[in-house]
Design goal:
The protein is mainly beta. It is built from five helices and 14 strands. Bound molecules: flavin mononucleotide.
């Protein structure tokens, strides 16, 4: 087994940090926010997950205070849209570094739809979307307690949209939606096959 401390990686063996290729696949938080001036934003975040069941709570983290975090500091609401294989290129286009205030829905040629409970928009064509109210934004610290330019936004799901064509016998057919997930480097995975396993009694 290769072992190294992160600060001492031998770049002749591993030129690129491999950790994101290990914590893989990561679901993608395709997050829409809005500024206090009404400027609309959409961006993908793969440091993203559901972190609590009931109520459902989602979190995503930003390397640096990006526009999504800035907007959430103004209007504490976001919408997560589920990115699928069908919208992979549009999802990627929304990661472009655009000037603050530029609408990535327009940049990526995506139609947006109103949410019901919050002001940010959802992505038309995404088979599911979750409307969230911000719980808190946490500034990340390293293990010595030093503040990082890393920000985690945590939000409670207050509204759920699901395309009913993916609901079969009362259950969501995740594989049929073809969700995409981020791996390391420039790699992605697609969920198109599931297997079932029950927890021990
Ligand atoms: C699939 C994907 C996942 C990404 N995940 C993250 C992430 O977890 N954290 C982050 O800071 N940037 C991430 N990025 C880069 C941001 O999407 C990019 O910096 C974007 O411009 C941020 O937008 P914003 O400034 O409008 O919030 C990711 C990009 C892609 C394509």
């Amino acid at each position: 087994m290769l072992f190294y401390e992160p600060a001492r990686r031998d770049k002749s063996i591993l030129p690129h940090d491999p950790i994101k290729a290990l914590i893989a696949p990561r679901p993608i938080g395709w997050v829409s926010t809005i500024s206090s001036k009404g400027e609309i934003n959409l961006a993908p975040y793969s440091f993203f997950n559901q972190i609590h069941s009931s109520p459902a709570i989602l979190a995503f983290a930003s390397d640096g205070q990006k526009d999504s975090i800035t907007n959430l500091m103004q209007i504490g609401e976001f919408v997560w849209s589920l990115p699928t294989l069908a919208q992979k290129d549009a999802m990627n286009a929304t990661s472009a570094t655009l000037p603050y205030g530029r609408n990535e829905f327009e940049h990526a040629g995506l139609a947006m739809a109103d949410a019901r409970m919050v002001r940010p928009k959802r992505v038309v064509g995404a088979p599911a979307a979750l409307e969230c109210r911000l719980c808190e934004i946490i500034r990340l610290k390293d293990s010595d307690g030093r503040e990082l330019d890393g920000w985690m936004a945590i939000g409670e799901v207050v509204g759920v949209h699901i395309d009913e064509t993916f609901i079969r016998a009362g259950r969501v057919d995740t594989a049929a939606m073809r969700p995409i997930a981020r791996c390391g480097y420039h790699d992605y995975a697609v969920v198109d096959e599931l297997f079932e396993m029950r927890r021990p009694a």
